[in-house]
Amino acid sequence: MNFVVGNLTEPVFRPPSEWDALLIAITNGCTHRCTFCSMYRTKKFEIRKDIDEIKREIDQARALYGNRVRKIFFEDGNAFTVKSELLIEITEYCHKVHPNLEKVSAYAHAKDIVKKSDEELNNLADAGFTMVYVGVESGDDDVLKACKKGTNQDELALAAHKCHQAGIAWSGIFLLGLTGNDKEKSRKHAIESAKLINRMAPVKPIKWYVSPLTLEIAPGSELWAQQQCGEFQPGSFIQILEELYTMIEHTDDHLQNCIFNTNHASNYLSLKGELGENKQEFLRSIEVAINHTISKKRNW
Ligand code: SF4
Hints:
Number of domains: 2
Bound molecules: iron/sulfur cluster
Number of strands: 10
Structural class: alpha/beta
């Protein structure tokens, strides 16, 4: 259960692993309108200007929950649009008020990470900001363009490395099924995503995270409208599993400290482990799922 202080505007989203975090809104909505996403379509994007008000909410959480807050997640969809000095000030304040705080995290867009200097990111990490969740979706520039992600493979790789060097844990979320039932495009999406994963590998021994999700077409999204008029047809679950297989198959065998996780509810198959170390096991599990009739029945 999340800790909340009534500062949030519905609808509210956060990564599954932040289910026990205190949610503090420092922005509302999202700067982007990706075609597959309906998360913040009803919200006009804004950066909250009143820092004292945000601090009062952080104080209020202390009064309500005492020393129990161990994680804080900054809402909404792109907290890195906030100026670095303010992000640092708010992060420091969170640690001052909540002495048992272990993790401070947020969603961020690659473009806004890249806009921050290495020094700013270092200072943010020193202030106690620990993790960023980035909707990568794909390593394929054509797919990124088609879904209006507003970034590309080069920028995503750079954003990951800037976070690695600062010591901010990088969690990259990929999206299986984005190319619909076009098998050729699906394969390219998978291979380019693997290429990006290989490019994102840190040079120093730190943990980083890769989590593929499976496309669920959300009513209200542009993709939903495309599906309604027959412009987009989703791929079968076998095609999605093949896409996952191809993605893993093309990752470097020697990737280190890359925590790979497909246990999000949208996925057909739950895999968890280290991408380099457990690569062959993951591939075998996907093969079994593809070939085994029981898996097909389970999907039904
Ligand atoms: S996918 Fe992420 S960046 Fe794109 S609109 Fe949704 S929240 Fe914003």
